[in-house]
């Protein structure tokens, strides 16, 4: 197990670093394997320092889950361009690296196995899901408004739920068996499926010659 390099940091930075070490441990060994001792070893600190910032292992796990879910919502918020471009980017980023990889799958599987039996994690999950869906609803509302299409909130909510289901299913396929699909195949399926769902075409993002990161991300695979 590799250690993270720590530096003199503020309290907020140290909490952030400890949460990152926790996520690393969960990805490698699951929730049970992510003991305070293992987290401390990964972070290169003492277990006592962890307890200084977090009252218990349950607390640091809850904070780690909040961070994991928040990052997904932030991706929906931090999109640039026209309404169509932002919606297209949303579809793309949710099916490519770093959202779609084996580490993300390991973290998701570890936490989701506890959500149904842990009220605190269940509350975090519900809040994160609703926040994520609200961002998607806003993207859809802006998309329809830009086209001059009337769409009431109830329809937009229904479309957001269905679109999220499509993305979740394809994300899982890509993370579990990405080698079975061609380059960009799942992304292409997502666009065609969502276009059929909402009844309007969506132009996929177009990579430029220098956009190597974008082209590399098109290959969904299991690392």
Automatic annotation (TrEMBL):
InterPro entries: BetI_C (IPR039538), DNA-bd_HTH_TetR-type_CS (IPR023772), Homeodomain-like_sf (IPR009057), HTH-type_TetR-like_transc_reg (IPR050109), HTH_TetR (IPR001647), Tet_transcr_reg_TetR-rel_C_sf (IPR036271)
Keyword Methyltransferase part of the UniProt annotation: no
Any GO molecular function: DNA-binding transcription factor activity
This protein's UniProt keywords: DNA-binding, Repressor, Transcription, Transcription regulation
Superkingdom of this protein's organism: Bacteria
Protein known as: Transcriptional regulator, TetR family
PROSITE patterns documented for this protein: HTH_TETR_1, HTH_TETR_2
Pfam families, per database record: TetR_C_6, TetR_N
Organism in which the protein naturally occurs: Ancylobacter rudongensis
Residue ranges of domain HTH tetR-type in the record: 12-72
The entry's DNA-binding region: 35-54
């Amino acid at each position: 197990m590799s250690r993270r390099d720590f530096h003199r940091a503020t309290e907020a930075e140290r909490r952030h670093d400890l949460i990152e070490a926790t996520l690393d441990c969960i990805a490698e060994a699951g929730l049970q394997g992510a003991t305070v001792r293992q987290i401390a070893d990964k972070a290169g600190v003492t277990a006592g320092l962890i307890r200084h910032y977090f009252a218990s292992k349950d607390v640091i796990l809850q904070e780690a889950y909040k961070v994991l879910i928040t990052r997904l919502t932030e991706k929906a918020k931090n999109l640039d361009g026209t309404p169509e471009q932002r919606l297209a980017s949303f579809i793309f980023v949710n099916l490519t690296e770093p959202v779609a990889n084996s580490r993300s799958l390991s973290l998701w599987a570890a936490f989701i196995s506890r959500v149904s039996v842990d009220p605190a994690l269940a509350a975090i999950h519900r809040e994160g899901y609703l926040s994520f869906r609200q961002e998607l609803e806003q993207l859809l509302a802006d998309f329809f408004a830009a086209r001059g299409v009337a769409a009431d909130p109830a329809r937009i909510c229904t479309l957001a739920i269905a679109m999220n289901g499509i993305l979740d299913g394809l994300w899982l396929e890509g993370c579990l068996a990405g080698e079975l699909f061609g380059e960009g195949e799942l992304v292409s399926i997502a666009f065609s499926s969502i276009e059929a769902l909402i009844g309007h075409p969506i132009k996929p993002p177009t990579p430029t010659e220098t956009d190597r990161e974008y082209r590399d991300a098109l290959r969904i695979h299991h690392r």
